[in-house]
Structure formats: C-alpha cells, structure tokens
Amino acid sequence: MSATPPTPPTSPTAAELTARTREFLAAHPPADTDRATFLRARFDAGLAWVHYPEGLGGLAASRTLQAVVDAELEAAGAPDNDPRRIGIGLGMAAPTILAYGTEEQKQRFLRPLWVGEEVWCQLFSEPGAGSDLAALGTRAVRDGDTWVVDGQKVWTSSAHTARWAILIARTDPDLPKHQGITYFLCDMTDPGVEVRPLRQITGEAEFNEVFLTGVRIPDSHRLGAVGQGWEVARTTLMNERVSIGGMRIPREGGMIAPVAAAWRARPELRTHALHDRLLTLWTEAEVARLAAERLRQQLAAGRPGPEGSGMKLTFARLNQEISGLEVELLAEEGLLYGDWTMRRPELVDFTGRDAGYRYLRAKGNSIEGGTSEVLLNIVAERVLGLPSEPRDDKDLPWKDLAR
Amino acid sequence: MTASTASAASAASAAPADLLYSDTEDELRAAVRSLLADRSSPAAVLARLEQDRPYDPELWNTLATGIGAAGLLVPEKLGGQGASHREAAVVLEELGRSVTPAPYLTSAVVATEILLACAPASPGATALLGELAAGRTVCVPALPLTLGPGGPLPAGPPTAPVAAVADAAAAHTFLVLADSGLYAVPAAEATRADRTPLDLTRPLATVTPHPGAGTLLADPATARHAVRRGLLAGAGLLASEQLGLADWCLTETVGHLRTRHQFNRPVGSFQALKHRLAQLWLDVASARAAARAAADALATGAADTELVVSVAQAYCSGVAVRAAEECVQLHGGIGMTWEHPAHLYLKRAKADSLALGTAAHHRTRLAALADLPSP
Ligand SMILES: Cc1cc2nc3c(=O)[nH]c(=O)nc-3n(C[C@H](O)[C@H](O)[C@H](O)COP(=O)(O)OP(=O)(O)OC[C@H]3O[C@@H](n4cnc5c(N)ncnc54)[C@H](O)[C@@H]3O)c2cc1C
To answer: What Pfam family does this protein match (any one) (chain A) (predicted)?
Structure first.
C-alpha cells in the first residue's frame, strides 16, 4: 500500500503494522487458537480497528492501515468477527460510544461489541418518527439514579438477536424537538423490553417492533449529556450512512456478481437489450466502487461528514437496478422465489439467496438508514449549501407539533 | 378478427381508436369493482395467500357467471356475452387494481382467444368455449408465462414438461401446444408441480401431460396460428391489468402522503415528492391511453394491432413497476412490511413485466413493425 496518505508522525507505519501483525500471529497461531480467544487477543493487541485509541482495540493509526492488518490476517487464515452479524454495533454504536462515552462505558462495551459477543441494535425509529426522527415520542423520566422509559420503536433490525441497544428518548417535551432528546444504552434483557417480529416484504422478519414499558435504565448508561441526544444521534446517523454505503468491495463484488456470473454461464439468456443494460450497470457499479474508495481515502483521517450520504444513495439505486435486471435476465426462473417461510435471520445475506430475494430486499436500501429522499435533501443542503425548505418545526415545543 | 401482418405500412395508423370508456364499460367496471371491494380487498388477498389458498372459487364464480365476465370475448351464438376486448380490458384493470388471484388473463383471455381461432372448425374447441363462457370450466394454456407474441413457440411431443405455467392450480383443462397440434388435456391427466412464485397472486407450476392424454383440437398450422393470436390478445390486455395496478399504487401513495406527517407537515407537501407524483400521474395517464389503444385495436381488428399491442406492452410494464416501486419507497418503512399490501403490487408488477414478453421483447418487435431496423 504505497498510496496511503501521510499519517501523523506518532502513529505506526504500514511496515510497523505488518511486523506487529506477524508477531501477533506467531503468538496466537489461528490453527491452534479458538475463535473467541483469538478475537479477544486481537482486540487487546490493538489490531481490531487500528484507528481506535490504544487500550480500546486500536493503535491510534490511520484508518486506511486497517487493510494492511486485514490482509496479513486473511493470508494466515485467521477467523474474523463476522462484521455482517454485528454491523449495527460496529458501524453505529461503536463510533458513538467512542465519541461520547465515559471511560467506563468505552471499557465496558467496545471489546464484547467488536468480538461479537454482544450484538447491538438501534432503537431509533418510531411509528410516528421515521424521516423526522427528532419528532420521536418515547419518554424517559428521571427517577433518582435511573430513567424510566416508555414508548414504542419500530423497524428495529436485529432486535431479536441483540444484547444491547442504542436508544434515543424524549426527556423534555416542553423544549423544541431537537433539544429535549437524550441518548441511552439499553439492556435488551431488561424487564419491560418486548420484541415482536415484524414480517417484511421478503417473507422473513429481519426487523421488529420493540415495546418499552417501564424499562429502567441506570443513569450510568446515558451517553452524552441530558438533552444532548440529537447531537449524539447525528454522529450515529453519519456513521450509519458511511457504514451502509462504504463497505470495501472488490471489483465485481456485491450485487453485480451474480448477474455477471449468470451472464457468463448461460448464453441462452443473453439478448442485446439486456447486454446494454448489464454493461451500463457494470460500469456504474465499478465507478461507485471507486468513488466509495476515494471517499474512504478522503475521510480516512477525519470523521464522516454529509458526503457519506452520497455513497449510500448510489448503492441503494444500483442495488435496486441491478437486482431488477437479474430477475429479468433469469426469465422463467426470475418468476420464481426461493422460500416465503417466515424466518428470523441472524444476518442479511444478499448473495446467499435468490434473485427475487435480492430484488425485494434491495427495496429497503433506499429506506433504511435514512431514505434516499431525505439523503438527497442532506446533500443539497449540507454539501451544496442550498437553502432548506421553509420549516416551522425547529422552534416549537415538541408537544405542540402536528402528528 | 385477423391480426395484421408485420409491415412498415402498419406503422401509419388509420382512423383514431376510441380511447375512452363507454357507458357499458363504466357499468361493468362498477359491478366488478364493487364485487372485488367486497370480496377481494388487499387484506383479504393477503389472508388467503397466507393460508395457501390464493384463489377464491366463489369469487370466481360470481365474476365469471354472475357478472358474466368469463364469456365477454365469446360470441353469443357460442354461449358467451359477445362483447369485446374493450370490456375484458376493464375487468383486467379492476383485477390489477386489487391484485386478485384469478385465472382471468389466462383462461378468459389467452385460452379463450386460442379456442376462438380453432372454432367452429373444431367441435372440441367450440364445446370448450361454451363451458368457458358459462363459467363451468377454467382452461389454462400450458405455455410459459414469459412467452410473448412473436416468441419461439414450444414444439415437441405433447408430453413435454412446460415450466412457469400461470394459474395451473386453478385449471380444469390445459391447452397443450405440441408439434402434432393443439390438445385439450384435463387437469387430471397431467402432472402439476407447483413452484414458489415471486408473485404469490399468480401461482406458477410446471405442467407435464401424461402420455396419450387429452383430445386433439387443431392441426399444427391452426394450432400455431391460434396460440399466436392468444398471446397477442394476452399481451394487449395485460397492459390493462398493469394500468389498474399502477393506478392503485398512485392513488394509494397520494392518499398516504396527504395524511402522513413528518417535520410538522404532510409529507406530500414537499416539492421533491410532489413533482415525482405528478410525473407518475403523467405516466399512468399515458399508460391508460396505450392500454386503451391496445384493447380497442384488438376489439376492432385494426390493421396495426400488433404494433399497438407492442407499444402498450413496451410502455405499461415499466410504468407498473415504477408505480409499485414508488409505492413501496414513499410508504417508507411501512412499505417494506408484509402487513401493508404494497409488496403484493410490487411482486405482481415485476412478474407482469416478464409476462407475455418483456418491454425489451416488444421494443424488438417494434423495430420490425415500425420499420426501424437494428444497426
Ligand atoms: C429494512 C429496514 C431496516 C430498518 N432498520 C432500522 C433499525 O434497525 N433501527 C431503526 O431505528 N430504524 C430502522 N429502520 C427504519 C428507517 O430508518 C425508517 O423507515 C426511515 O427513516 C423512514 O422513515 P418512515 O418509515 O417513517 O418513512 P416516512 O418518514 O413516513 O417517509 C415516507 C416517505 O416520505 C419521504 N419523505 C419524508 N420526509 C421527506 C422530505 N422532507 N422530503 C422529501 N421526502 C420526504 C420519505 O423519503 C419516504 O419516501 C429500518 C427500515 C427498513 C426499511
């Protein structure tokens, strides 16, 4: 990796990281070390996410150098922490805890999160508060050292496998909506937390409804100051967009892979019209991959900004167009579906299932983590600096908003 | 009615088609809509699907005999209503609007057209038409749903398995096209392997007739001509189903966005969404013209029928898919749930876009029909 940007002088270089990873591998040969032990040791050696601080799974290195470590580990056949299964923890909870957590919170939560011993979910959206997340109505009322939480969340991915949740709740209904919100870490095993499967378009129940009734959260599990919840949540949301749109994929990785494979293997399916669309989408997928890589390099040192929304927009559109093309390419087979059984999957695996599943699941890509319409507004307003539409909801007390 | 032959001349249209709805058609629509509103609301459709009973035989019975919809294309002297494709199109609009699982397109349109092309020379076909028109029989062509007019017709022994046959589960009789002619095969004399369809409202199966099953209805040449005619009518009227589907999606989405509040105002008041819905309305209005033109051309036997049908299919497939995709998207998280019917429309729209020839297939046909050859 000669093309990495310059890194601060104190942080390790690529060569140092390679050496360090090899030393670590020598001390913990993957073949003779059980998975959990290996992953915990890797965290403690600072090789989990190298850009995190020392003592918290990192070495305060440049974010881009993670690739150096990953390549060494992969070559040695080391187990990984299955980032797909713990995506919300890695992509959203962790950076937020890192930015706003107390020392105790960071020590308590980051290691089991990264190792995958504790899965996280995100209790943000509510039936009445989706795009307008700051309008949420779940209440948290202080009672001495604890908070008592009542409300309903919806579309909560992985709530059925999660041990912990990031949660935002209203702590002051008399303030304007953005000011009366506080951010908590919620124990999903606590009394009063009820998770009900919510079946979706694909037939399975990947997301859930979550009912919170008198749930008691200790004040030590508050993240950030009382009333600072929206600011904290914005960190989560920025990271969410980057983590959804910003996964590093190889050329012809992702949704285009099965279409390209079917095209090569099955000449009888080919038509001129499909060919032109395939090549157009193949090119767009490759360019999107490069643009995501470029954005990653740009952001390597800093924090994610509104630019991350752009990549999520592109991937949502491409995933939908490519999976739509795949259904059409398969002709008679495209009319079929693998399985409508209602299941509660542990992870969302696009490539492991059929074209119809991909087509339907990809429809969520432009809704989850902020809809494409809302992200376009963000690009227009925060990247391009265009004025926002007239708004009357910013200064009104939350309790006086129209619902 | 004779379908026009492909020629550059057919690109020029003659007298303008009647693209409006007649009073009779409006009455028929009202009857079908109120029946479907009663018995086939999206919630009722979903409930039946979840119990693996997509078809409602009583509903079919009322539609076929009570309203007389099954025999619309069948002349009165053969026991039918002696109406036309224009009326059948209106029925399909309503079936599309409600995504009702019913073998209407397959039995009352494609199979009926095939049989009409064989009768009266074929007593078997004539008899079957009477049964169909009386709503006593559901007759389904054993053809892949993806086959469009001008596509390669299956040729082989009558026992060859056919994949992706729509509505096979509802059929009493299959029409089987073989190199030796067209056969009417009772459902009991064929093996039916149900597949799991993307569109649960139009079930699919692989159908394999038993050796020696059925009766010969037509010789090979008549059979192939008849099937082509069936596919042409099917493709033309599918546009009306797609129109009805798109229209529901638009109406439903507009309704939702008028009442759903985010940011202290109705979501539909955001200009970004208003413009999109206005564009979709334009697309649906255009689709209506295209679908009406196809129905009218089929009804009048216009010289440019093949062209008008391909225009309708090349256009309406895309509008229906886009309308359903917009419906899911603009309902936000609700649109991704199983409880909300948006997914039924999306699945039907996508499957419809593959049925009876894709938009690309019909554009390719237009290259010849409108004399716009490829490079
Ligand atoms: C598969 C999936 C997984 C999810 N997982 C989670 C999760 O784990 N945790 C969680 O908290 N949430 C989750 N969500 C919820 C998701 O974040 C919300 O669905 C999303 O923010 C949209 O909110 P809504 O559904 O209320 O739609 P609404 O806000 O009602 O939006 C309806 C439509 O209006 C549009 N719209 C709204 N405002 C504007 C505007 N100002 N300008 C233009 N258009 C606008 C929207 O884009 C949308 O198309 C998930 C959703 C899905 C589909």
So the answer is: Acyl-CoA_dh_M
Task: Return the DSSP state at B77.
Answer: G
B336 Cα nearest atom in ligand 1: 53
Distances (CA, A) of B183 to A290, B175, B231: 57, 6, 17
Cα(A344) to ligand 1 centroid in Å equals: 21
Contact assignment for A200 to B328 by CB distance below 8 Å: no
The domain boundary residue, chosen from A192, A226, A260: A226
* The pair of three-digit structure tokens given for residue A374, joined into one six-digit string: 């809302």
Residue pair A188/A159 in contact by the 8 Å Cβ criterion: yes
Specify the CATH number for the domain of residue A252.
1.20.140.10
- Inspect the interface and report whether the beta carbons of A201 and B336 lie closer than 8 Å: yes
The answer to whether A387 faces chain B, any CB pair under 8 Å, is no
pLDDT digits (tens, 9 = 90+) for B284-313: 999 999 999 999 999 999 999 999 999 999
Q: Answer whether B337 sits within 8 Å of A198, measured CB to CB.
A: yes
pLDDT, one tens digit per residue, over A339-364 is: 999 999 888 777 778 999 999 999 99
Report the alpha-carbon distance of residue A209 to residue A194 in Å, rounded: 8
Residue A3 C-alpha, separation from nearest chain B C-alpha, in angstroms: 40
- Between the CA of residue B359 and those of A93, A273, B150, B275, B315, what are the distances in Å? 45, 10, 13, 25, 7
Residues of chain A below pLDDT 70: 1-10, 243-247, 300-302
Preceding peptide of B120 cis, ω within 30°: yes
Domain tally, chain A: 3
Ligand 1 shell residues, CB under 6 Å:
A 121-122, 124-125, 130-131, 155-157, 207, 364, 367-368, 370-371, 373-374, 377; B 260, 262-263, 267, 270, 272-273, 329-330, 332-333, 336
Give the H or E element holding residue A346: none
Is the per-residue pLDDT at B5 higher than 50?
no
Find, among B272, B263, B277, the residue nearest to A130 by Cα: B263
Tell me: do A215 and A254 sit in the same domain.
no
What pLDDT score does A301 carry?
62
pLDDT, tens digit, 9 for 90 and up, residues B258-277: 999 999 999 999 999 999 99
Best residue of A206, A335, A372 to probe chain B, by most B CBs closer than 10 Å: A335
Looking at A14, A48, A80, which one is the last position of a domain? Answer: A80
Distance between CA atoms of residues A86 and A94, nearest Å: 11
Which pLDDT does position A250 carry in this prediction?
87
| A395 part of a folded domain | no
Q: Out of A155, A243, A312, A373, give the residue to mutate to test ligand 1, the one with the largest number of ligand atoms within 8 Å of its CB.
A: A155
Interface pTM, i.e. ipTM: 0.92
Please indicate, yes or no, if residue A31 is contained in any of the structural domains.
Answer: yes
Nearest CB among A135, A273, A389 relative to B270 is that of A389
Average pLDDT of span B224-251 = 98
pLDDT of residue A296: 77
Report how far residue A256's alpha carbon sits from residue A278's, in angstroms, rounded to the nearest whole number. Answer: 9
Which residue's CA is minimally distant from atom 43 of ligand 1?
A373
A46 belongs to a structural domain: yes
* DSSP structure string for A52-96: SPBTTTB-S--GGGHHHHHHHHHHTT-----TTTTHHIIIIIHHH
Active-site residue, selected from the candidate residues A206, A240, A326, A368: A240
The mean of the pLDDT values for chain B is: 95
Report the atom number in ligand 1 closest to the C-alpha of A129.
Answer: 26
Residue A321 a catalytic site member? no
Size of interface A-B (CB pairs under 8 A): 129
Q: For residues A214 and B8, which has the higher predicted lDDT (pLDDT)?
A: A214
- B273·A154 Cβ contact <8 A: no
